[in-house]
Design goal:
Helix content: 40-55%
Strand content: 5-15%
Number of strands: 13
Number of domains: 2
Strand order of the largest sheet: 7-4-8-9-3-10-11-12-13
CATH superfamily of the largest domain: P-loop containing nucleotide triphosphate hydrolases
Structural class: alpha/beta
CATH topology of the largest domain: Rossmann fold
Shape: elongated
CATH architecture of the largest domain: 3-Layer(aba) Sandwich
Order of helices and strands: HHHHHHHEHEEHEHHHEEEHEHEHEHEEE
Distance between the termini: 80 Å
């Protein structure tokens, strides 16, 4: 026996009034979602008024009647029918009954619209032209992602300032401790979820090593991490993080890693040390995903975040992308040879992933060549896209002079902190060249 439900005109009428009640849905619900022609006509009249209005308020019932009559002078929709359509029947239904069905209706129609649009984009291309097919596939991924990424749950008016409970910042839930006490102090407790942190440094200056250390520290604190590598292979990135987390000499890793029992023992030992403050926690997971340089869009990366949840049931707490300058802009943005706009779209795209999935996003970018090996960095030392720094919530400079490399030292300098102030600008770290661990962070008062 089939259990498939039919979307009746009565349900569509309830959905119509649900949108009138929650006018933010006018933007994402298209008129052709309605199968009943009379409801579609009335909805399109109300939607057009909303979209072209300045105050973005749902038109009143009287205004809708006036617009329908002006668009339907022959009264194909009779006055009695129009009154019946615009009569609110909510008193006979629970909100939960309407809302759950409304969400399913919107999401299914949006997905179908995305599939139809995707077919149009690919059906007339040369199917043996790899470049054309690849570009079409990128466009289709973006179309499907946009059509299915709909906020269906935000029907609230926001936070009430006068609610004392709303002022609780819930630091433990909203910040990820980094494992470096001095750095957490500088950041006001750790890396915030829904933010973008950018590290800037020279080629070979430790950007990847820094990001990989964050992966290990987050996992040790019980947080799940997705590390997207656009430069190193998955195996090489895994080797580095394995050396850090399992305390294995990087120069002996290739040989020791062949011993499965030895590696299992080291992994179990590392997982057994997982703590967060005074409380023991389950160790976090680290997933390493490789994309070829210049091929990964924000949509591609977000799809991996979604796939992890769909296949494992685990949510990603930190997304680390190594690194932003070798990402690819989604094809529908026309930014060829426009470096500022490219940086803007990529940085905004990564930050939006963090906001949609409640995770912290970190990446890195290169400094201008004239600042290689310099003892100091400033925000304007980004050579190409100032937009990356403008969009980021935090920007940290990695300083490593030739002498510091010999001594096994790093300096991190805060260049931008949107939501925190610190007495000191710099933190100095030691670096273990055998295990690639960055440790012993301490504030530095003066730099000669």
């Amino acid at each position: 026996m089939s259990t498939t439900s039919t979307v009746t005109p009565q349900l569509e009428k309830l959905f119509l009034h649900w949108i009138f009640k929650n006018s933010q849905f006018f933007k994402s619900v298209e008129g052709n979602f309605f199968k009943n022609e009379d409801l579609k006509f009335v909805y399109n009249a109300a939607r057009n008024e909303f979209l072209f209005s300045q105050d973005k308020q749902c038109p009143s019932i009287k205004e809708i009647k006036t617009m329908v009559r002006s668009l339907d002078p022959d009264e194909k929709i009779s006055t009695d029918l129009l009154n019946a359509i615009l009569k609110n029947d909510f008193t006979d239904y629970r909100d939960e009954f309407i809302e759950t069905r409304f969400k399913a209706w919107v999401l299914s129609n949006s997905t179908i619209a995305g599939l139809v649009e995707s077919i149009e984009k690919i059906k007339n291309i040369d199917r043996v032209d790899y470049t054309a097919v690849n570009e079409a596939v990128d466009l289709i991924k973006n179309v499907i992602n946009e059509k299915t990424t709909i906020d269906l749950g935000d029907s609230s008016i926001g936070i009430d300032f006068d609610d004392p409970d709303a002022h609780n910042q819930e630091t433990f839930a909203n910040k990820l401790p980094t494992g470096w006490e001095a750095f957490d102090t500088m950041l006001g407790g750790g890396i915030d979820r829904k933010t973008l942190t950018v590290y800037m440094g020279m080629v070979g200056g430790g950007k990847s090593i820094t990001l990989q250390n964050f992966c290990v520290n987050f996992a040790d604190a019980g947080f799940n991490v997705l590390y997207v590598t656009l430069e190193l292979s998955e195996k090489k990135a895994l080797k580095r993080m394995g050396s850090m987390r399992l305390n294995i000499d990087i120069n002996q890793y290739d040989v020791l890693s062949k011993d499965r029992e030895f590696m299992k023992e080291k992994i179990d030992e590392a997982n057994g040390k997982c703590t967060a403050g005074l409380f023991e926690r389950q160790p976090g997971k680290i997933w390493i995903k490789e994309f070829p340089s210049g091929s990964a869009t924000c949509t591609d990366i977000e799809n991996v975040v979604k796939l992890i949840y769909e296949t494992t049931g685990k949510r990603v707490d930190a997304l680390i992308v190594d690194y932003i300058q070798i990402m690819k802009v989604d094809p529908h943005y026309k930014v060829e040879n426009m470096l500022y706009l490219k940086g803007k779209y990529l940085a905004e795209g990564l930050r939006a992933i963090g906001q949609r999935h409640n995770l912290a996003v970190m990446t890195a970018t290169q400094i201008s060549k004239e600042k290689y090996n310099a003892n100091d960095l400033e925000l304007n030392d980004l050579p190409e896209s100032k937009a990356i720094a403008d969009t980021a919530d935090s920007v940290i400079g990695i300083i490593r002079t030739p002498q510091m490399k010999i001594e096994g030292r790093y300096h991190w300098k805060r260049l931008k902190l949107r939501d925190s102030e610190s007495e000191y600008d710099r933190i100095g770290f030691d670096f273990n060249k055998k295990t690639l661990k960055i440790y012993n962070g301490e504030f530095i008062e003066n730099v000669l």
